[in-house]
Amino acid sequence: MSSLVPLCEYCSQIPLDPKALDAESERVQTGRTWSLGDCVRIKNSSCPLCRLVLSHLYPGLTTAFTAEIKLRWTLGYVGRQAFVTYLARPETCIGFSSGMETADHPDPTSRFFLEPWTGPILETSRILRWISSCEQLHRSKCAMPTSIPFAEAYPGLNVLRFIDIEDSCIVERTGLEKYTALSYVWGGVSNFRLTKANRTALLMPGALNEVGGLLPHTITDAIMLTERLGCRYLWVDALCLLQNDTEDLELGVNVMDLVYERAWLTIIAACGHDANARLPGVQEGTRGGSKNTFEILPGVEMGIVTGLYGLLQNSVYSSRAWTLQEQFLSHRVLYFIGNKVFYSCRAAEHAEHLVDDLSQTSLDPIAGDTLPFDVLMSYPMLPLRTMLCSYTKRVLTNQNDTLRAMAGIIRRIGELMKCSFFEGLPTAILDLFIIFHPFPTVLYRRSAFPSYSWTGWRGSIDFEMPGNGDVDLNEWLRDQTWIIWYQRRPSGITSLVWDLDANPSFPLPDLQYVGYRHRRPFADGRHVPRQLDTRRTMPTEKVSFSREVPSYPMLQFWTISLFYRIFDIDVFRATGYLQDSNHKKCGFVWVDGFGETEFFESRGFFEIILLSETSEPISLANHWVQENHPYPLAAGQWKYYHIMILEWQGGIAERRGFGLLHQGAVEFSLPPGPSWKEIFLA
């Protein structure tokens, strides 16, 4: 006799049979939905499906949460039909057990795709099947060329070191080898490392047998896994770069992106918080078996389908800056996280707890945060924005690595955009990437890098998209920007940041590529306050400063300078409002470095410069825009200016904030503005 608790009055209305569910959904284009009542009811229910749904919801929902919970039968994140609800934990859905499949061989496209059980030991043969299908079906997408010279594959390196698993030692190779690479978090573990003192000893066969007990568990697990996969070589930073040799480290770090990109397989240890977290399932005793499905009705088993991104987003691994490019540039990746194993290449995804579909040849772009790099690059500008937003949330131990840890991604995006990068900013669309603001945290200065770039600030950022992203960016660059950007090197030499003559590969006629083609001067179609002469855009060559110039290039350019008060500062969010000469609220600002400088306490008015135009305020600033605008709207749709707050020292300015200004406020600047002014921005 079954001891199952019967379904409640809500769940008993749902036909728990995929064929019946499909038939119901065909009647409704967006997918059939069923109400389960509110969260309080579900929490108090003993119904087995309600209990399953409850474990599917955000854990933070309280018993007082009264919103209606609905189940919808639709295409789940795994590309197969499943139940979803909008209050679910990220990348989870509810699916049917593969044990319900009546066919002799489970169909990977079937509605029964959730494996009922995951064993305690990882099935290496299954991983090899995933890789084999990739090698056979995805050669053009996932295979790296092997016929190029070593010097071209790893520029600047004389040798590439590996752990040689057969000879149990470190080896130095000058050819292109098949190898796995480990991506992991060091944490606070005392990590045995390759040094100048032990290098010679570790090159001797059998040397690693002598130090096996000193290696962190994650590395020993990676060695064992690599051996089981039939691969001889493993690359691990701690044992393949001389950790106390500055030159060797520099050379190795500069090609780190290529090391991961050219790996046969990258093993990502995303569980735990240090190098002893292990690779659960590789060795006995490192994880228990797990039941994935539960009986809901006699003969009906269902369970929570967990996605990779839902697990990754809160992991320590995803909080580290260096791991971003290690993950995205790798061609084949094996993830260990949450006692689960996932596989991803550039054309397929697999997971231990799902029935395999070895026929995959493409990935669904909706899985954006875990998609391999080249899958995202059909329109590279938006992924660049997304990656920079993600990257700036991450922890960087050495602040001087801020650009280096993104260098591989930036280099590849530059190739796809057909433009170079300048201090972390794409030169063909500098105006778009200079309008960043803190989100959701406050920004603090990183003094070794320029304040005009994201590299110059610690803290997470977001980028303003003109017109809320609804405008043609080539048209926006042509019509709503006017600054001609020059770089001024520490030597005093100036040159254009974007020079078409210096970028002959930029495809001018192809408007799929975003970049500067033609520019409108400021006075063309815009109101010029007090009839200022705004014609000059050429840089002043000979300039003397009363402070030391920075070691990085400055931006030198001409634009409108204005002065306003900043008032009503929110000391927790570091936001405030601009006030004009008539004491009208005229703008919204984020103030940078608030709390680490007295700049915002020491004066009554602040200089701001105009950067570009936008039709809609940034979403976070929506609350300051009133229906009764304090100024007549400007002609056309462009109502606001993006602005930057400046602080000057010794003739050189630095960014101290970003925001929006009503276009009508330019006539109501405090003295000494407005003026057409040359800016030297460090």
TrEMBL record:
InterPro entries: HET
Pfam families linked to this entry: HET
Record-given protein name: Heterokaryon incompatibility domain-containing protein
Domain of life: Eukaryota
All residue ranges annotated as the Heterokaryon incompatibility domain in the record: 179-326
